[in-house]
Amino acid sequence: MGIVFSPLGLVLVFTAAITPQWREGHARLTVSGTGSFLRAGAKGQRTGGRSGSAEVLLLRSDGLWESCMQVEHSDLRQCWPVTGPYQRDPCVRLAQGLVLTSLFLCGIGIVLACIGVRCWMDLPLRGVAASGGVLVVIAGLLSLSALGVYTHNLKRLGTDPSQRISNPKLPQLSLHPAGSLYFGWLGSCLQVVGGTALLFCFKQPRCPTCPSRPEQTVCPACRSCPEITSKTDMDVYEVSC
């Protein structure tokens, strides 16, 4: 289970990290003039009589490294790298660092788990596989921390209350969590579950004891006990990480 859930969680967290939909909001904007660029691309808009004004709905979405703006019911969409106060926000920078560290640790943990499980061999390297599980669990906790910090400060990111100017003419965005956050939450939980499953590799399997020397624990792979090696029907145990 761990060797399946861990890569799946890594893919989901990576998808969440590169998509610009950690938060999204919408604002209604009244545009004047018949030759407006926004009015030309918007559909289903309400148009005034003499002034030729139109009300369009702007959809704004932000990610960790990219932001996008789109006019509703149109193909007008523009994306750009995050800049300004949002980029310099300490919570955004913290989330970026935690997610990058999480991706790196999870990748290393999956490599160690694959080496430790060694499906092509009779016996796994339990310590190596379990060490990979530790890294995957830490990666999941780091990504959960990044998501928690971002979600807790979602509506305040990129804003400075001390310098904010109240202007009723400016469109006000109604921000709420977007799809990338849910991908991140799901991927982080899968990382924690997968890493925890790999941690059980630390537990050694029960091996039969040698009848002539009960104090000595003998593994079926070890052929040091004559009573065990002479058995024609040898018990075979399966290791599942």
TrEMBL record:
Q: Name one Pfam family in it.
A: PMP22_Claudin
**Organism name:** Oryzias latipes
Provide the leader sequence positions: 1-17
Where, by residue number, does the polypeptide cross the bilayer? 94-115, 127-150, 182-202
| Name of the gene this protein is made from | cldn23l
Q: How does the UniProt record describe the way this protein sits in the membrane?
A: Multi-pass membrane protein
Alphabetical keyword list: Cell junction, Cell membrane, Membrane, Signal, Tight junction, Transmembrane, Transmembrane helix
- Report the GO terms under cellular component: bicellular tight junction; plasma membrane
Q: Cellular location of this protein? A: Cell junction, Tight junction; Cell membrane
Q: Say where the protein is mainly found.
A: other
Protein's recorded name: Claudin
Can you name one GO molecular function term for this protein? Answer: structural molecule activity
Q: What does this protein do?
A: Claudins function as major constituents of the tight junction complexes that regulate the permeability of epithelia.
Single GO BP term: bicellular tight junction assembly
What InterPro entries does this protein's entry cite?
A: Claudin, Claudin_CS, PMP22/EMP/MP20/Claudin
Q: Does the keyword Transmembrane helix apply?
A: yes
Give the similarity note.
Answer: Belongs to the claudin family.
